[in-house]
Amino acid sequence: MRKVKLFIATSLDNYIAGPNGEIDWLFTEGDFGYDAFLKTIDTTLMGNETYKLSQGFGEFPYKGLKNYVFTRQTNHPEKPEVDFVSGDIVAFVQALKQQEGKDIFLVGGGQINATLLEAGLIDELQVFVHPILLGNGIPLFQPTHNRHYWQFVECKSYEPGLVELHYVAES
Predict the structure, then answer these.
(1) Is 7 a residue whose pLDDT tops 90?
(2) For the chain, what is the domain count?
(3) Quick one: the chain helix, strand, coil %, rounded to 5?
(4) Which of 5, 24, 74, 145 is the most buried (most CB within 10 A)?
(5) Number of C-alpha atoms within 13 angstroms, CB side, residue 2?
């Protein structure tokens, strides 16, 4: 079965973006294992706001992968690089995990992260903590109703003060 992996950056106070979606605080110099991670996946999942944010990067960063964007809207413009999904996110991801292929990259944001966490569909967390307090913004996870326990795999630190925390879901 394929795994859903959340590979994501956060501030010390657990925000993945500023209040207006700003990500100008992210370290952009250095790989931090990203290229190796991309070789393990063939599919991305993201919320519509995260997709909109990616449109500001110039070229779409996930070309060559199967990309699903979750949205509440039922009419979306056709885009060659993505398929828009407006149905049941949990059922969709459960079915996707059963298909053949490499693992699945959960790009984010906070709402889809929480939805898949509550459903027990996230298998791994690789969280890159940046040495900044944003004070406000989009949280790593929207509030959930349950506790979720994780098994520690490893911790790495990088020169600019970045810390990588890697966990797998407890079974």
Answers:
(1) yes
(2) 1
(3) 20, 35, 45
(4) 5
(5) 21
Q: How far is CA 155 from CA 152, 163, 166, in A?
A: 8, 7, 6
Tens digits of residue pLDDT in 19-75: 988 999 988 788 899 999 999 999 999 999 899 888 777 788 999 999 999 998 888
Per-residue pLDDT reduced to its tens digit, 123-167:
999 999 999 999 999 999 999 999 999 999 999 999 889 999 999
DSSP letter at 79 equals: B
125 closest CA partner among 134, 137, 116, 138: 116
How far does Cα 81 stand from its chain's mean position? 17
Domain limits at 114? 4-169
Distance CA 157, CA 69 (A): 32
Please measure the distance between the N-terminal and C-terminal CA atoms of the chain and give it in whole angstroms. Answer: 14
Q: Which two tokens stand for residue 127?
A: 């969280």
* pLDDT reading at 77 higher than 80: no
Distance separating alpha carbons of residues 26 and 130, to the nearest angstrom: 7
